[in-house]
């Protein structure tokens, strides 16, 4: 404005200046809401700021943290992916994305994201630890599925039991492993065992179609037609 004063530009500049003051105020409120564990309130405030400051990686990372706390991991991933692009060498964003995918049971995407972290910093301790864990689990699941395709059901069961030992903390992997063990038992005509394992899966996921089909096959083997 000093170099080229005009009434129209002054109006626009004053409008932008007051907007920037307002955004700073909202930012203070958002940080305060986050610290007070009002994550929903923080998200609403950050939505307003990010509508204007769309390229701010740190604000996106803060909103991602709020989404994680609110149990909305897919929205957190979206913000973290944007933050990974907006900030150079953002290993932390890739690490968090990988962690979220892992907790959701998507070991393949988790492995892909943690590799991106290690491309940026091969000595990143957290990423390397997570990488070793996900890689081991991923390999066990891939091998088990290969055994199933070959009809080697006992070998597949052993491999899925190993996978459950590799990851005992995240329930989704145990449920998936049991679902596949139930399938192997049914296919290898171990009907009584199949019914037991399939029932365990269905207690956790009553509408699991695969477990229902495999248990139905096992019931047929036992001549339990009503069931």
From TrEMBL:
Family matches, as Pfam families: TPR_16 (PF13432), TPR_8 (PF13181)
PROSITE patterns: TPR
GO annotation, biological process: protein folding in endoplasmic reticulum
Biased composition (Basic and acidic residues): 8-22
GO annotation, cellular component aspect: endoplasmic reticulum
Signal peptide start and end residues: none
Region (Disordered): 1-22
Record-level Gene Ontology MF annotations: misfolded protein binding; protein-folding chaperone binding
UniProt keyword terms in alphabetical order: Disulfide bond, Repeat, TPR repeat
Domain of life: Eukaryota
TPR repeat residue numbers: 91-124, 137-170
The protein's name in its UniProt record: DNJC3 protein
């Amino acid at each position: 404005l000093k170099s080229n004063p005009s009434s129209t530009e002054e109006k626009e500049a004053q409008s932008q200046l007051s907007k920037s003051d307002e955004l700073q105020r909202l930012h203070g409120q958002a940080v305060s809401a986050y610290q007070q564990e009002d994550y929903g309130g923080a998200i609403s405030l950050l939505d307003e700021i990010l509508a204007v400051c769309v390229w701010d990686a740190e604000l996106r990372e803060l909103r991602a943290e709020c989404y994680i706390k609110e149990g909305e991991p897919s929205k957190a991933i979206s913000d973290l992916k944007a933050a990974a692009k907006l900030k150079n060498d953002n290993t932390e964003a890739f690490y968090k994305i990988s962690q979220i995918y892992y907790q959701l049971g998507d070991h393949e995407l988790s492995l892909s994201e943690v590799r991106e972290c290690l491309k940026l910093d091969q000595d990143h301790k957290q990423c390397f630890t997570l990488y070793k864990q996900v890689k081991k689990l991923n390999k066990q699941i891939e091998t088990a599925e290969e055994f199933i395709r070959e009809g080697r059901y006992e070998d597949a069961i052993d491999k899925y039991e190993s996978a459950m030992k590799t990851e005992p903390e995240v329930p989704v992997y145990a449920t998936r492993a049991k679902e596949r063990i139930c399938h192997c038992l049914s296919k290898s005509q171990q009907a009584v065992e199949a019914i037991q394992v399939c029932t365990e899966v269905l207690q956790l996921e009553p509408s699991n179609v695969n477990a229902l089909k495999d248990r139905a096959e096992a019931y047929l083997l036992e001549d339990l037609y009503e069931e």
